[in-house]
Design a protein that fits this description.
With 104 residues, this protein is α+β, with helices and mostly antiparallel strands. 23% of the residues lie in helices and 37% in strands.
Length: 104
């Protein structure tokens, strides 16, 4: 199992718009070999920075399945408008990938 996660810091006042981008996206993840599940997670608010932490979290059968997704037309189509949300993000997303050591 492979977990691919992007962490986003969303600026104050943009939380609802950010969530709606994910709710209303045209996802084709289910069409991809090895895809298991997707979650958008909302984390803590940073009062000082005036941001809210989010993580997109996909689970794949293998790291190679995830890599194949990132090289696919489905991936390019899913991300083609990613930069159109000016002021929404406090920096670039941070990617983290994990290979399962124990999977029960």
């Amino acid at each position: 199992m492979y977990v691919a996660m992007n962490r986003f810091r969303v600026n104050e006042g943009h939380e609802e718009a950010f969530e709606n981008v994910w709710r209303n996206r045209n996802s084709s993840l289910a069409e991809m070999a090895g895809f298991r599940s997707f979650h958008l997670l909302k984390g803590p608010r940073d009062e000082e920075a005036k941001t809210t932490l989010y993580a997109s979290h996909t689970i794949w059968e293998s790291e190679q399945d995830f890599i194949d997704w990132t090289r696919s037309d489905n991936f390019r189509n899913a991300h083609k408008n990613a930069g159109n949300n000016k002021g929404m993000y406090a920096g670039h997303p941070n990617f983290e990938g994990f290979v399962a050591v124990v999977d029960e």
